[in-house]
Amino acid sequence: MKHQKKFLLSEQDLPTQWYNIQAEMPNKPMPPLNPKTHEPLTAGDLSHIFNMECSKQELDQTHPWIDIPDEVQEKYAYYRSTPLVRAYAFEQALGTRAHIYFKNESTNPLGSHKINSALPQCYYCKQEGDTNVTTETGAGQWGAALAYAAKLYGLEAAVYQVKITMQQKPYRSYLMRTFGAAVQGSPSMSTRAGKDIITREPNHPGSLGTAISEAIELATTTPGCKYALGSVLNHVALHQTIIGLEAEKQMAMAGEYPDKIIACFGGGSNFGGIAFPFMRHVFDGTHKDTEFIAAEPESCPKLTRGKFEYDFGDEAGYTPLLPMYTLGHDFKPANIHAGGLRYHGAGVIISQLVKDGYMRGVDIPQLDSFKAGILFAQTEGIVPAPESCHAIAATIREAQLANEEGKAPVILFNLSGHGLIDMPSYMSYIDGDLVNYRVSDAEIEKNLEEIPLKID
Ligand SMILES: *Cc1c(COP(=O)(O)O)cnc(C)c1O
């Protein structure tokens, strides 16, 4: 009999609620703090920047299930369910007895999981009477997702894209424009923050920190305009639980349950998205031994070598203080190609779960990540995003470990996106121009001195 390759849910079986893990965590996350007064923030404080519904979701520690609005379910149905795929050819190339499954989040119009949160964020803005959304973007995955979602719900989107990335990798900037967004290279002359920088340094290449400052300034000075973030925050991970909730049903269709769950780790939204729904079975004792592994780049090792402290979410220090594993908010990771993983901190929920021993991080060198991605492309036929290559490399490690131990675990990893717009990264790897970047202990120590509020 032919083995089934992929598992899809019919539209009527799509999840209708997201899973809010905060409500069921044994130790709840500590609150975000006002950086000046160190007072816990309320949803009302957050709603100056974000829409009200997301501000509430951010702090909700009571409701384990949150309804997905009908209008969002309708847009999810354009591309969901995403396939759960058994990676037979990849398994064979690895010579492993492990069963390897991946959840393919690359099959939507934007090519990554970020659309799963862009849609509800734009929907809530529209509901609450906003007319505009704004954000920053590095390589452009988030900006593109927001541009598309804004268009679907009839909002104007303004995206500040780091200038140097916009020049070096122009395709996503045109993808955003294709979906109707106004895209500005940051620093720009359209905000005070941008103007100040350009006046001091006319050829400033831009940075995510600066782009965040510009977007927040636009949101707080423009009536009807809200800021939207594509990772790190609790409400973003909440929306991404659609990934794990589908995967749970699809694994059941395959007649298996994962022993190990793996995803790449930037701020934690795709990892949390696939992990949290399965984590509830750790909490309720039905599957106590599932392992959860976050694959971060060796050049930005916040989970394995960072510290659990209150730190700013952005480089410039504009955001609230968040209790998280961090390398210090002005840590400058090497310019690796997995741009989406170059973030100094880890989401608050995941940080707490790592601290409590429910999850762990592993560090992947850049060259290992591309080597893994190329093996995956040559076996399964999908060119993975440079970020997703980290999850694949971690999966290979686990499969090899299982071989050594004579075990055959079921491994599930999340393929967060495809790499077809990231071919310049593959070009550098194939041409032999890439290197590994290991951060020294001294560098990490030095950066951690800048942390604004230490937790004892
Ligand atoms: C943004 C991005 C990531 C990293 O973000 P998380 O919030 O950690 O998921 C990973 N993969 C892809 C394809 C991305 O676009």
TrEMBL record:
Function comment: The beta subunit is responsible for the synthesis of L-tryptophan from indole and L-serine.
Keywords for this protein: Amino-acid biosynthesis, Aromatic amino acid biosynthesis, Lyase, Pyridoxal phosphate, Tryptophan biosynthesis
Coiled-coil region: none
Subunit structure: Tetramer of two alpha and two beta chains.
SUPFAM superfamilies (alphabetical): Tryptophan synthase beta subunit-like PLP-dependent enzymes
Protein name: tryptophan synthase
Catalytic activity: (1S,2R)-1-C-(indol-3-yl)glycerol 3-phosphate + L-serine = D-glyceraldehyde 3-phosphate + L-tryptophan + H2O
Cofactor(s) listed: pyridoxal 5'-phosphate
Keyword hit for Lyase: yes
Pathway: Amino-acid biosynthesis; L-tryptophan biosynthesis; L-tryptophan from chorismate: step 5/5
Tryptophan synthase beta chain-like PALP domain ranges (all copies): 79-416
Organism: Hallella multisaccharivorax DSM 17128
Enzyme kind, highest EC tier: lyase
InterPro entries for this protein: Trp_synth_b-like, Trp_synth_beta/beta-like, TrpB-like_PALP, TrpB-like_PALP_sf
GO CC aspect terms: cytoplasm
EC number: 4.2.1.20
Endpoints of the signal sequence: none
